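Q: I'm writing up a methods section and want to include an example of the input and output format. Could you take the sequence below and give the corresponding predicted structure tokens, formatted cleanly so I can copy it straight into the document?
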Amino acid sequence: MTSVAGAGLPVVVLFGGPSAEHDVSIVSGTAIAQGLVAAGLSVRRVLIDLDGAWWWLPPDATDAGRPAADYDDPVALGAEGPYSAGAAVDRLAARVPRPAVFVALHGPFGEDGTVQALLESADLAYTGAGVTASAVGMDKAVFKRLARGLGLPVVDWREVPAAAWATDPDPVLAELAAFAAETGDERLMVKPARLGSSVGMTLAHRAGERSGALATAFAHDSLAIVERYLDHPRELEVGVLGNDPAVLEVFGPGEVFPGREFYDYAAKYTDPTSRVTVRAELPAALGERIRELALAAYRAIGGEGLARVDFLAPRSDGPEAVYLSEINTIPGFTPISLFPQLAVAAGHPFPELCATIVRLGLERHAARVRRHLGPADLPRA
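A: Here is the clean output for your methods example:
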């Protein structure tokens, strides 16, 4: 990454966002900004608040250790704004040289292809997956359909639209009762289809809890996913880094040990008994299979830059059983997040990792520009 740093290319870290994962993004974006500064890059942070307004934070400020709640008042932080999304993107595009944008936004708007489309409309280089891959990776229903169609193992599920629930909940509950009977377990896992960090996720232990679980999911999305319950499965995570499907780095699997019944938002970010390890104790053949499945999932959505791929390995289904859970195209960079830990354990120091992700974004953007240029537009040697 020395060449990029030496060229003085500015990097804008985009964090916060109008989603339920706003605070997590604050932590990730702050850590990423610190890593990029340590790698020798010129960094500016742009905060998107919960209302979708964009704010330029003061130059050279990384605010390590500042509580996420402090960002609720950008003016008090000396931020410049607010700007609408369109005005903010125009402002980024007008800078000379144009910055690379490190997208550190989690959840809707930041991880579902929306901000990626905004940045592409202004021909700005950005990190991570493109519009389509971001959208597919964010939508658990679409991702599960794609994975199953390709023969990748996924946990059986049902989809419940909010409109169907609002019109007549009785057929929905009857379908879920039949589904639970098929699985042989009354417990069902209910979650929003297009959200991350286990926000809005509920384990319905019995039939009477399903209505409340759906209501929680619908508070975040118009589509709920209801999955067969796996009893205390091992939760395994793999990191993938790279653009070229033929040349990808894969790290892990690591393992999550939730301090609660399952790895929900509280277990991830507030429960001190939750822990992770970068080296899951697995038979060599199973570890290799999980890495191959992670690469297959990454390639299936057209992943670029980076992703974390999550797996569930239920002990009750046999020692070799494993299911692809989801793919996260903008994984967390918080202290407990496994993606950066897996990369560091594989020999990528954190500053180098952040700079490498920028380089991959620049390479993808350059390739996109070349594809859109005609022969007469290409620069002469």
